[in-house]
Amino acid sequence: MPTDPRKRQKKQERRTAKRKAKQQLVSKEKHAGLAERLAAVTGAPILHSMMTTDVDEQGLGWVCLSRQLPGGMVAFALFLLDRYCLGVKDALVDIGTRSDYDSKIVRKMTADFEAKQMTPACLRKMVEGAVEYARRLGLPPHPDYHKAKLLFGDIDAGECTQEFEYGKDGKPFFIAGPHDTPERCRRIMNTLTASVGPNGYHFLMPMPLGEIDIDEDEDEDLLPE
Prior knowledge:
- By secondary structure, the protein is an alpha+beta fold.
- It folds into three domains: 1-40; 42-159, no CATH class; 168-225, no CATH class.
- 40% of the residues lie in helices and 20% in strands.
- It contains six helices and seven strands.
- It has helices at residues 5-40, 54-57, 98-112, 120-136, 145-148, 182-196, and strands spanning 46-52, 60-68, 73-82, 87-97, 115-117, 173-175, 202-204.
- The protein has a five-stranded antiparallel beta sheet with strand order 4-3-2-1-5. Strands 6-7 form a two-stranded parallel sheet.
- The chain starts with a helix and ends in a 21-residue tail after the last strand.
- Residues 24-32 and 208-225 have low confidence and may be disordered.
């Protein structure tokens, strides 16, 4: 007797739903335990402390901090730093094998960009300074920053004597990226208008300004993506 195709389809759907639920649970458990694992390794030796020169030259680039762990493992935090306006625009933190870290992070940073070493104290000072600058403008860091910053651990930013400039020519400078939607751009610019006034910042858009529809009277909190 042939199987009812509707019953077979429902059975497959139930299996798919169970598999997805299991995958989500595993992912949730992995990320839930990451903060505790990071807190336990914040005194491990520094492996790399570096940034791409785009941070200096264009105001936006990658900053990487990593620690060498026992057994060939590496804990690393990667920040997309926007020192002109948004602070930490994106962040990634994880613990993995040295080979994966070298191939996916180090080689890509050094092959696709010009990178330079910096002291861990100055790296932390620069990142936290950019976050504080953006916060004063009403712009919060990427949500993953709060987990990634745990890797700073015992690094003392006060040991860095270097001073870092935020903004450009004395004002915030918002540069919309390829993944910044018109809605997100509108919210960012409304937030800047509310904090420093319509003439208190610069901006650069990849689309006509009319598509953004800035409301100078709207006092809306920026919702991070």
